[in-house]
């Protein structure tokens, strides 16, 4: 009898870093056996990750959606997303990885982060054309050089190169934050990013907008307005979507029962959890598990150039 899968492995950045644990940029082949030992089993990263698959083939499952990749593609993964990868033997590409602290070294990359790493689908996949490939190649090679030589100010240089990389990716992806008056834009973006981070830390125990508004020291109605303005979704929808996503991750990647998952997500009544899940997905937990594992959610990336 196969062993019951109850957990999803968490990978920290030092496990991939060869020298500097605050920022990693490397060819996939240079990452070594530790990297490939993790890839085929569902796991989470504690850091932001960008994969650039340049050659070869990759079957990449992000949360419950499987992307079939055959050429030049960028993947953006936020911390705690669940993914697994199956590479072809001739795969070539890069991995860029960094923690929250590096992203906020100067000022937060709020608009870019909200669009590429944190969005309604919780992931971004972008296919590059030949000219775009050349632009990104220049940036990545410069990152590699800065990381290797480590001259004075190299961390600032890496941060600036990362920002430019993400700006270009955002343009290709069509990612834009809603226009707001300049005097409010920075504040509202900061509040929204803080709200999203609070959800990640507390979704298993805090499920009401008022709980998060209290922590942000604003009124729930204002939190909803900011959330709607910057993302198109209310604060309540973000909280609910995060809970549903985590339930889907456990249903797809583990053998835990719906009852066991409900307790992990902070529901005292498993029957209420099942009703909650079905209300917002139109499937019972068992129906979702069967459909997802049957491969119903599969995307051919070359046929769908951009999934926001």
From TrEMBL:
Signal peptide: none annotated. Residues 193-291 form the HTH araC/xylS-type domain. GO terms for molecular function: DNA-binding transcription factor activity; sequence-specific DNA binding. It holds the Pfam family AraC_binding. The keyword Transcription applies. PROSITE patterns: HTH_ARAC_FAMILY_2. This is Helix-turn-helix domain-containing protein. The lineage of its organism: Bacteria, Pseudomonadati, Bacteroidota, Chitinophagia, Chitinophagales.
């Amino acid at each position: 009898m196969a062993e019951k899968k109850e957990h999803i492995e968490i990978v920290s950045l030092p496990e991939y870093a060869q020298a500097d644990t605050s920022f990693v940029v490397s060819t996939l082949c240079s990452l070594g056996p530790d990297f490939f030992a993790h890839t085929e089993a569902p796991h989470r990263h504690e850091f932001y990750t960008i994969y650039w698959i340049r050659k070869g083939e990759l079957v990449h499952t992000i949360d419950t959606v499987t992307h079939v990749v055959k050429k030049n593609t960028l993947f953006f993964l936020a911390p705690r997303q669940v993914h697994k990868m199956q590479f072809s033997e001739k795969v070539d590409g890069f991995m860029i990885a960094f923690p929250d602290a590096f992203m906020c070294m100067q000022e937060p990359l709020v608009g870019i982060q909200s669009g590429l790493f944190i969005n309604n689908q919780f992931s971004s996949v972008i296919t590059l054309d030949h000219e775009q490939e050349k632009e990104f190649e220049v940036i990545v090679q410069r990152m590699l050089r800065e990381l290797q030589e480590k001259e004075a100010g190299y961390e600032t240089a890496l941060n600036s190169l990362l920002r430019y990389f993400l700006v270009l990716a955002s343009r290709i992806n069509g990612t834009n934050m809603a226009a707001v008056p300049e005097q409010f834009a920075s504040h509202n973006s900061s509040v929204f990013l803080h709200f999203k981070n609070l959800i990640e830390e507390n979704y298993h125990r805090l499920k009401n907008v008022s709980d998060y508004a209290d922590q942000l020291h604003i009124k729930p109605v204002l939190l909803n307005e900011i959330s709607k303005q910057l993302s198109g979704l209310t604060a309540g929808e973000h909280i609910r979507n995060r809970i549903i996503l985590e339930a889907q991750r456990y249903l797809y990647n583990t053998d835990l029962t719906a009852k066991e998952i409900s307790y992990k997500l902070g529901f005292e009544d498993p029957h209420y959890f099942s009703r909650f899940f079905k209300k917002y997905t139109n499937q019972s937990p068992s129906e979702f598990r069967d459909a997802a594992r049957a491969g119903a959610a599969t995307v051919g990336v070359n046929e769908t150039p951009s999934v926001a």
